[in-house]
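# step 3/5: fold
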Amino acid sequence: MFSAMRVACATVVAITLSACATTARTHRWPIRLLVAAATLPLVVLLPALCTILADIAPFYIAITPLPIGLASAAVWLLVVAIALARRPATKNVLVTFASVSLCLAVGEMGFGYVNALGALELTDDEVHIPDPDLGYRLRPGDQVMAREASGEKVVFDVTYTIDANGYRVVPAAPMAAPCRVLFFGDSFTFGWGLPDDQTIPNQFMMASKGRYSGYNLSISGYGPHQMLRLLETGRVERLIGEGPVHLVVYQGLHAHVARAAGRTSWDLRGPRYALGGEGVTYVEPFHRDASAALLRLLLHNSEIFTFLHRFLLAVDLPRAEDVPLYMAILKQTKREVERRYGQGAFVIVFWQTQDEVEESGLDLLSEFAKAGLDAIPVSRILPDLDTNRAAYAFPPRDLHPNKIAAQQIAQFLAREAGVRQCRPDLAASDVPR
């Protein structure tokens, strides 16, 4: 099969060159034009053949269709210019287009290398499906196999269990408990790289010793805008049913400032909020269907566009101009939570290191204080976070919280917030701060 594919690719090139060479001997322009048009589909066929070749090869070949297609188009344009075109002006135009196509092909390969620098080998069969309110969500009832490797070393190899509602299971949550807790966030709270029983929500249930049942409403890539939209649309109530909620935990990080403003490459249909009056108002998705489809197509196929998109948007890097929107979304979320579940129910846990402050020029913990929001710094829970970050992450470069970090955060929340809020003898509105 491998040899057959090589023969097929060589045949495609040979047919193109021989057809053009044969036509070059005739002066009838209709024939030259016909041959040029007839060989054009081979430019599309060659990338497809090479892709199939890469799939069936006994070893890994990093081949993407776009640079091969651009290089094939450059060759075709040059052959047509040399062998078929008669007028100098036509030759110049064809050579110019060939040069541009070749430069783009080289650029795609170069930026592909740049985009892959430092990337970890990740296999994750997580399936996202469109969601009209949130942009995307997990497919209900899935068993997601996730594996990450760095060279020969396996960083993690775990299974994520997704429940019938499309959220990660919390195995330790008792069927009946006097109090309930909701967890919101992204992959840090979802439990990236951790088995079901080691996530922060599950370890919180274990640390609370039967006092709490609850839900992990976090999904990788989410931000505070999805949390607010879940509350405003009533989907939280429909999910958890009737009864009080005593604690709502949001775990945030610097990247959420950019996500709330729509500056990501994955959350193209997420909920857009705009500042206005005393809070924020839901406007529309970040991108409409057509523009989201076009962006997705370019991001999935073009390395140049992917690099420029990340560079121009500074994906996941906070900007000072986006901070007011982020804070306003959290303030409105707090109002929504406390209106439903009582004073003191909303707890913010925030990741911030000195390196992040220096890189972004933003001290978001200070911004929380200015906005009148109480936030628990993770450095209060993990005092050596700045000097010993590696102890709480996956080696060598994956900064998601590992089992140790998840356990300490969960135990702190159960001790400091869980006990205070779980007062089933009082009405939710009477629970003290």
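# step 4/5: annotate
Confidence is low (pLDDT under 50) at residues 1-9, 21-26, 427-433.
# step 5/5: archive (pending)
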